[in-house]
Amino acid sequence: MADRINNAAGKQAVPALPRHIAIILDGNGRWAKRRGLPRTAGHMVGAENFRKIATYCKNIGVEYLTVYAFSTENWKRPEEEVGTIMKLLAKYLDEAIRTMEKDHIRMKVFGELNRLSPELQAMVQRTDEISQRYEGFQANICLNYGGRDEIIHAARRYAQDYAQGKVDGELTEEQFGNYLYSAGIPDPDLLIRPGGEYRISNFLLWQCAYAEFYFTDVLWPDFSPAELDKAIEAYSSRDRRYGGVKNP
Q1: Dist. CA 129–CA 127, nearest whole Å
Q2: 169 Cβ partners below 8 Å, 6+ apart?
Q3: Whether 22 contacts 208, CB under 8 Å
Q4: Which residues, in sequence order, are bridge partners of residue 107?
Q5: How far apart, in whole angstroms, are the C-alpha atoms of residue 111 and residue 109?
Q6: CA-to-CA distance for 70 and 68, rounded, in angstroms?
Q7: pLDDT of 242
Q8: 168 in catalytic set
Q9: Quick check: 194 and 218 in contact, CB under 8 A?
Q10: pLDDT at position 15, please?
Q11: Integer distance in angstroms from the first to the last C-alpha of the chain?
Q12: How far apart are CA 203 and CA 142, in angstroms?
């Protein structure tokens, strides 16, 4: 999709390019198992692939990329695997902090952070501080995240504000959206799930109400820019009506 990259570099409009892409990073463990490697090896390769896909999204003009890195249910996995994932996240955030200033990239972490280590929490706070200074491409990492948990978290925050008289009147969708982790960010246009599963696994339940879904059997470590191009091409062919009718 060289022409898409060239258009993005020349700041020309690209037809039907999703403004916001969400991806469920699925298949790391199976990728490793097929190669006779420990599951942790799959997570290492998957983490590097996130860096590659995020850079590609930025280059072609996508404004937001949100990835599902670790769910509230993933704590049930073996302790060694969870530990490896957390170390990889710490490594990535450390590298991101050192490059965000140079590349003017924004990054946000969605999820309940209290269960994370103090080191990871401090890194997340640092990325927030850096992100506030720039505009442009933003990567969002869902960490200790669950869609239902997010909605409950938002409802509790709204109820507290209501009880304290900080809000009044009838609750609207727009108002409720301001209490979600994704407040201020447009909803995903395209949700991609590699790995051969056909479900969204508690990911961005509120935000993906009108997202286009794209499923593929390709495992996340093998999900290349070319595979992303296929997903974008499929998205480009969709007729997005948001419950209405075009040309009635």
Answers
A1: 5
A2: none
A3: yes
A4: 139
A5: 7
A6: 6
A7: 63
A8: no
A9: yes
A10: 47
A11: 34
A12: 9
Residue position matching structure tokens 């925050």: 157
Under DSSP, the state recorded for 180 is S
Say if CB 26 and CB 217 are below 8 A apart: no
Token couple for 47? 């983490």
**Which pair of tokens denotes residue 173?**
């969708």
SS3 32: helix
Greatest Cα pair distance in the chain: 59
Give the gyration radius of the chain's Cα atoms.
19
Which candidate in 26, 49, 144, 149 is catalytic?
A: 26
Query: Catalytic residue among 3, 6, 28, 74, which?
Result: 74
What does pTM read for this prediction? 0.88
Give me the pLDDT at residue 132, please. 87
β-partners of residue 71 are 145
Question: Splitting the chain (248 residues) into consecutive groups of 10 residues, what average pLDDT does each group show?
Answer: 52 70 95 94 91 93 95 91 88 82 85 91 90 90 95 96 90 95 96 97 97 98 97 91 62
Contacts of 131 (CB under 8 A, 6+ apart): 100, 106, 107, 108, 138
Q: Closest Cα to residue 61, out of 1, 19, 105? A: 19
Question: Is 128 in contact with 160 (CB distance < 8 Å)?
Answer: no
Determine phi and psi for 24, rounding to 5 degrees: -90, 115
Any idea which residue has 């942790």 for tokens?
Answer: 40
pLDDT at 243: 64
Report the DSSP pairing between strands 138-145 and 64-71.
parallel
Helices (H) and strands (E) in the chain, counts: 8, 6
pLDDT at position 4, please? Answer: 54
pLDDT confidence of residue 13: 43
Active-site annotation holds for 26: yes
